[in-house]
Structure formats: structure tokens, C-alpha cells
What does this fold into?
Amino acid sequence: MPMKTLVQFINEKQSEYPSATGDLTRLLNDIGIAAKIVNREIRRAGLADINGYFGTTNIQGEDQKKLDVFANDQFINALKHGGQCAALASEENEDMIIFGNKYSMQGKYVVAFDPIDGSSNIEVNVPIGTIFAIYKRISSVGASGSLEDLLQSGNHLVAAGYVMYGSSTMLVYTTGNGVNGFTYDATVGLFFLSHPNMKIPENGTIYSINEANYRYFPEGVKRYIKYCQEDDKATNRPYSTRYIGSLVADVHRNLIRGGIFIYPGTLKNPNGKLRLLYELAPMAFIVEQAGGKASDGFRRIMDLEPYDLHQRAPVFIGSKEMVIKAEEFMQEFSPDFVEKM
Ligand code: AHM
Ligand code: MG
It folds into this structure.
């Protein structure tokens, strides 16, 4: 059977919309090219001098790894020279980057991204990822991009996706019409459609959470964990724990197998750890498009209004029935927790 490439698939989708200009197609293709370059470098990690720290810290106060910096540069360059993107926000840059060249100012879109998600896993050869979120700008085409272009809720996402650099490299994306996954064939340098129309099981038996923070969890999360660990044949409990520590890889596994990923707010950090704009909103869009659910325990992640590029939010994301159950525990045992956010 002939295999469809990512570029062919994107072009085919565009042709279903007679009014489409091809700008989003070009933007997605540019992201695909940057992903290939980053993938090449990741595959050489350990051989090339790409492991380790760069000697700087980012806005979150985290040490930047060489690969964080390399990947960030690749995506910025791809977007800067592509001409479709007027401005961007990255985990690695405190402020948004506005492309001042005339070409980019004509771009209709802005992009928020996390160039390397799961950085702490780089030197131990565990899957890492890239996450991207594409919004249509609010400011006029031809003018400079503005902060309000990026501070839009997930409901305004035009497209979102992730790249997972795992045992194989995959690019998974949605434009709001289902989710499709592509696997990279390094021998020909192309992504091929391998996971058409991905659907997350409504229920699963995996829960993913960093349980080391248990004593700081809200009561609702503590009770939900106990629920996951109880014996009950009818609901296949006890569930299993799987925690990679790379959001992309944990969510990707749950997308295929069924499961829930939780990074809750804690008594120490009421908004949790993960960032709304370039981690949670795009992953929520993908999971919802695959039939799953993503919430902060009370509200849809997609409904949360960003006020800061690097703002954090708690997250419960994955199989619909599992997220609904976790929300019930939050609402019953930690109803005041939403106020802390
Ligand atoms: P990063 O983007 O700086 O790598 O941080 C995000 C990562 C997620 O991929 C992962 O889910 C989480 O941080 C793990 O955090 P923790 O080590 O606290 O469990
Ligand atoms: Mg990240």
C-alpha cells in the first residue's frame, strides 16, 4: 500500500477547504522541517557534544541544556524565515519574539512552543518531545505581532501538535478535525502517516503522577490515588503507575493505551508546574480531539484565559472517564482548591 507523507497529507487536507490559502500548510511544513533537524541532533546525543548544560538559566530558573538552546534556535529560525508567523513565545525566552521583517509581519499566525519537553531525560536516553500551539493573530496582518495575539485561550487554537523523539520519532497534530500521527523514516527523511484518526480509549488502567509530592497534594488527588490503588475487578483496579517525566511521552502513551496524566496544584505550588500556553493548551486540544478530556480539576484547560506567557496550571488529562472520576474527587474533597489558582 502506498504510504502518505506528512506533506501530502497536509496538502490534501488543505484542498478540502477551497478558501484555504495554504499559509497554515506552509507553517506546519516549516515546523516539520525544524523537527527533523532537532531529531537528527537528538539521535546523535551521546556522540556529539550536545548533552549537558549550556551554562545559562531560562525564565523558569531552570538550567538550560545545550539541546534546549539548539532546538529553540531551530524552531525560531524555521518560523522567522517561513513568513507565516508574526510572533512567537517559547519556554526558553522570557519575552515574546516579534519578527520585525516585512515578510513575517504579513503572517497570519503566532506560535507558542516548548522546544524540548522533558529536558531532564536528555542524557538518560528517555523520550523527550517538542510541543507547538498555533493561533491566528488578533492584531492586523501587516502590523507587528502583539502580546494579545499569544494570550488566547485554547479555544482559539487553529492547530497544535507534538513531536516525540522516542524509540521512533513521531509527529502528532490536529487542526480541530481529529488527530493524526506520522512516523519518521530516517532513511528517506520523511514523516509517513502511521496513526490515522487517533482515538483515546474512554477508560484505561494507567495513572501517571509524580507521587513524590504526595504530602503536598490536595485531598482530592490523594483520595483519587487511593481509588486507583483499590482492588475492584469490575473496573480493572488496581491500575498501574507509569511515569516517564516527559509530558509528551506520558500523554502519548495514554493516548494510545488509555490512562490519565496528572500534574496537580500542590500546597506549595497551587498552580502546579506545567505551562498553560505551550504545554497544556496544545496537549488538551489534541486529547480532546482524540475524544479525551483535559481539566484543571474544575474547568476545561481549553477555557482557561492566559494572562502571562509562562503561567502555570494544574492538569488532569487523558481518558474521558478517568478524568471525570478525578474531577469528582477534586470537587468533593478539595472544592476550595480552585480558589487557590
Ligand atoms: P520541561 O519542559 O522543562 O522539560 O518541564 C516539563 C516536564 C514535563 O515534561 C513533565 O511532565 C514534568 O516536567 C515532570 O516534572 P517532575 O519532575 O516534577 O515530575
Ligand atoms: Mg516542557
Q: What stands out?
A: The chain has two domains: 6-195, 206-340. Residues 62, 91, 114, 117-119, 210, 245-247, 273 surround AHM (ligand 1) (CB under 6 Å).
